[in-house]
Amino acid sequence: MITHKREKGNEPNPQRFKMIGETKQFIEKDGISTLEYKVLCEIFYPSVTSPYGYTIGRMIILTA
Q1: DSSP symbols for 15-61
Q2: Residue 48: its pLDDT value, please?
Q3: Which residues contact residue 56 at a Cβ distance below 8 angstroms, ignoring those fewer than 6 apart?
Q4: Which of 14, 31, 34, 48 has a CA between 20 and 30 Å from the CA of residue 62?
Q5: What CA–CA distances, in Å, run from 8 to 11, 12, 40, 48, 62?
Q6: pLDDT reading at 51 higher than 70
Q7: Please, what is the average pLDDT of the chain?
Q8: pTM of structure
């Protein structure tokens, strides 16, 4: 592995191993699976189409 110098202000978190050990408790409660959002806009664009005529390109704009 290549070693590198630490950046100033980016010291190791002394609680990191404790936090890693507690990850299993929070993995189903935190993050994307529990995020509440509202779809503001859904845009379909015909950048690429399949041979079946379906539009593949799509952009969804969300707000939390």
Answers
A1: THHHHHHTHHHHTTTSSGGG---EEEEEEEEEEEE-TTS-EEEEEEE
A2: 58
A3: 47, 48, 49, 50
A4: 48
A5: 7, 11, 40, 45, 35
A6: no
A7: 75
A8: 0.36
